[in-house]
Design goal:
CATH architecture of one domain in chain A: 3-Layer(aba) Sandwich
Largest sheet of chain A: 6 strands, mixed
Number of helices of chain B: 23
Strand content of chain B: under 5%
CATH topology of one domain in chain A: Rossmann fold
Oligomer: heterodimer
CATH superfamily of the largest domain in chain B: MetI-like
Largest sheet of chain B: 2 strands, parallel
Distance between the termini of chain B: 34 Å
Largest interface: A-B, 25 and 20 residues
CATH class of one domain in chain A: Alpha Beta
Strand content of chain A: 25-35%
Order of helices and strands of chain B: HHEHHHHHHHHHHEHHHHHHHHHHH
Chain lengths: 235, 513
């Protein structure tokens, strides 16, 4: 499990500044939820941690080492030991469920690929979907495959970008329970982006409330519940 | 490796294609061979340019109107044989234009007893309109099918259907109409084969005559530069939209566009389409066939003997050309869409709009050097010309394919620890197969029918189907010309059908939902 630190990050897309002097330390082994309205910069934080974006200014540290700094990527994404669940899930349409999950293992020529994949599929209760293609799955099943894929390499950091959007509450509960169980076992550092404050309160050890590229407030569930921050009251 | 991927194809593109055009400018500016800077601009040549622009302008207007009407009918209304009509009406675009010139000459001879009427500006306008209207249909139709149904439905809540079309749909497709008009204007202005066949003097035929018949290189270069400048100015007016060319795409997603019923106007719609189909495709083919079989001697055996070696050579070269074009197209599209390097794609756009004869002259002047004889004296020069003419089309088809692949697919693999080369080979490339195949097929068919640049640059000893048929038409009996043209058409249609069948199988296998 890794500690993630963002120091004085400013980031823009063209003329639009999405993060302004953003600093935060994500605690190792904990789940931190990023909550806030659309366009407030939540996804950008995840992409900066993953190394998919170069910060315009400031630095990103993982486990004490600087991995990105002032427009430069010092450690490429694939060396950061990260699992990422994308908002659109990004399941590769030309691979079966099994191959989607096994791809990274195969490329790294790991042993016991079948066992490792089957174990995860069993955990999510979708073993029978292994030979199916993504378009043959329901929304919830796709979600589970995406999460399973992000966990297969036993990451030290798990980044989840609104992974439960567009699925019903019962299924969401089910998947979250699976995820929390795995987190209990593996203890990776997890950043979880969501719009839904109930989801954040259920999942997060710590919650960050963001607005227009800045942190409005941050704290534990209790601290957030008791906060008198005006934006939070409104939000 | 990174340096190679980034710069070698770019350097090749500049060295092989862009430098010849730049050299043409330099030769013009430095006034080599006693050339005065503006000696070619005299009243007669400017009038000729005006006449060429007028002919092309009329063609562009007529073809854009016809193509837009077709697009509205075929892409916004539901009726039987709709898909068949779409494919059939597109065919003239992929067949070498001079085939239609020969066919219509036969048609006029058969209908009116002489073909003198068609040997005129009106003849050029008519045949060009039938050849180029499918382009307007394709561009406008694709844009129409991308208009989200919600826009139209929201409009229909407040105004009538006709008003909604005028006020909502028409403004939305205005860029497509402009680009159709512009591209057809450029293509018509650049075409050499139809005016030359009908004996109509245009700026392009004049350049060809000065260069190939009178060997007046300084004048031909000066005229080429003038035509190039006109084309560049036309291109620059819409360069941004052209360089994104959304109509050149293979869509994996279904259309979100709203479709309407034809109601009691079904007969009218079918009637209009059949008249157009007959004029653009069926009558010309029928006329070619009739003309081939009239006369005392049957020329088919002779025609086949003449064209056979050229046909094999043409297919071989078109195949090689299509492979190179698809490879370079993939590279330019990839660096544009994923690395935000737009210059290679812009360079291909530049060579795409250069008239064939001008490109031909530029290549001849550049490669006609003892050290470069391995290009000038071989088929390599033809492959370079093909790349210049059709590389942009392939690049845009593949580029639009890349745009349809969410970046997150590649990012997910990167985060999972896969090196970028493998991400490209295992994730991007398999998903691009339909676009790559389409780019290959289009390039192959277009290379097979290319005449303008081929006429200028084909090396001695190289026999090509289009050139052979075109050159023989000046002296051979009409029935022999028609027979050769019909065989030429048959070969093209054979490959279109073959690749269509293969494409259907391949799309089923590789187009992921």
């Amino acid at each position: 499990m890794y500690k993630i630190t963002l120091e004085n990050i400013t980031h823009s897309y063209g003329d639009k500044e999405v993060l302004q002097n953003f600093s935060f330390s994500f605690q190792q082994g904990k789940i931190t939820c990023l909550l806030g309205p659309s366009g407030c910069g939540k996804t950008t934080v995840l992409r900066l941690v993953a190394g998919l974006e170069k910060p315009s200014a400031g630095m990103v540290k993982i486990n004490g080492s600087v991995v990105s700094k002032n427009g430069e990527i010092l450690l490429p994404p694939h060396q950061r030991k990260i699992g990422f669940v994308f908002q659109d899930l990004a399941l590769w349409p030309h691979f079966t469920v099994f191959d989607n999950i096994a791809f990274a293992l195969k490329e790294k020529k790991e042993d016991n690929i079948k066992d490792k994949v089957t174990e995860l599929l069993d955990l999510f209760g979708i073993s029978n979907k292994a030979p199916k293609y993504p378009h043959q799955l329901s929304g919830g099943q796709k979600q589970m495959v995406a999460i399973a894929r992000s966990l297969i390499m036993k990451p030290e950091i798990l980044l989840m970008d609104e992974p439960m959007a567009n699925i019903d509450i019962q299924l969401k509960e089910n998947i979250l329970n699976h995820l929390l169980k795995i987190h209990q076992q593996q203890k990776f550092t997890m950043l979880y982006v969501t719009h839904d404050h109930r989801e954040a309160l259920k999942t997060g050890d710590e919650i960050i409330i963001m607005n227009t590229g800045k942190i409005e407030t941050a704290g534990t569930k209790e601290e957030i519940r008791n906060s008198t921050n005006s934006f939070l009251q409104f939000y | 490796m990174k340096f190679g991927f980034k710069y070698i194809p770019f350097l090749l593109l500049v060295l092989l294609l862009v430098l010849p055009l730049a050299l043409l400018f330099v030769q013009w500016l430095t006034g080599k061979e006693g050339m005065q800077l503006f000696s070619f601009i005299d009243r007669a040549y400017l009038l000729l340019m005006g006449k060429s622009l007028l002919i092309s302008g009329i063609v562009a207007l007529l073809a854009t109107i016809t193509g837009t009407v077709c697009a509205f009918l075929l892409y916004k209304f539901q009726f039987s044989f709709n898909k068949f009509y779409r494919v059939a009406l597109l065919l003239p675009l992929f067949i070498s234009p001079y085939i239609f010139a020969v066919a219509w000459k036969d048609g006029f001879f058969w209908l009116l007893g002489n073909s003198a009427t068609i040997y005129s500006e009106a003849g050029v306008i008519m045949v060009h309109t039938f050849v180029f209207f499918p382009l307007a249909m394709l561009i406008t139709g694709t844009t129409l099918s991308q208009i989200h149904s919600g826009y139209e439905e929201a409009g229909l809540m407040t105004v009538s259907f006709r008003r909604m079309m005028m006020k909502i749909v028409l403004p939305l497709i205005r860029p497509a109409l402009t680009i159709s008009f512009l591209l057809i204007l450029l293509f018509s202005l650049s075409d050499f084969s139809i005016p030359a066949f009908f004996g109509v003097r245009t700026f392009t035929t004049e350049i060809f005559t000065q260069f190939s018949a009178f060997y007046n290189f300084p004048l031909a270069i000066g005229q080429s530069v003038l035509l190039l400048l006109v084309c560049l100015l036309l291109m620059l007016s819409e360069a941004r939209y052209l360089s994104d060319a959304p109509f050149l795409s293979v869509s994996a997603k279904g259309s979100f566009s709203k479709k309407y019923q034809t109601g009691n106007r079904k007969v009218l719609v079918h009637g209009f389409i059949w008249i157009l189909l007959a004029s653009a495709l069926l009558i010309p083919v029928l006329m070619l066939t009739v003309q081939s079989f009239t006369g005392r001697t049957l020329f088919f055996a002779e025609a086949w003997e003449l064209i056979r070696p050229a046909a094999f050579q043409s297919v071989k070269l078109a195949f090689a050309g299509a492979c190179i074009i698809t490879f370079i197209g993939l590279w330019t599209a990839f660096v544009k869409e994923r690395k935000n390097q737009k210059l290679p794609d812009l360079l291909l756009l530049l060579t795409f709009i250069v008239p064939s004869t001008v490109l031909g002259i530029a290549l001849i002047r550049y490669y006609n050097h003892p050290a470069l004889n391995f290009i000038y004296g071989t088929s390599l020069i033809l492959l370079i010309a093909y790349l210049g003419k059709f590389g942009f089309i392939a690049s845009r088809i593949i580029g639009n394919g890349i745009k349809q692949i969410p970046v997150s697919f590649e990012e997910a693999a990167s985060v999972a620890g896969i090196p970028s080369k493998k991400v490209f080979l295992k994730i991007s490339l398999p998903l691009l197969v339909p676009s790559l195949f389409t780019a290959f097929v289009l390039s192959f068919i277009l290379c097979l029918g290319e005449l303008g640049a081929t006429m200028m640059v084909y090396p001695p000893g190289t026999e090509l189907m289009t050139v052979k048929t075109f050159t023989i038409s000046a002296n051979a009996p009409e029935a022999l010309t028609s027979s050769m043209t019909l065989i030429n058409l048959g070969v093209t249609v054979f490959f279109i059908l073959l690749l269509f069948v293969f494409g259907k199988w391949m799309f089923k296998k590789f187009q992921y939902v």
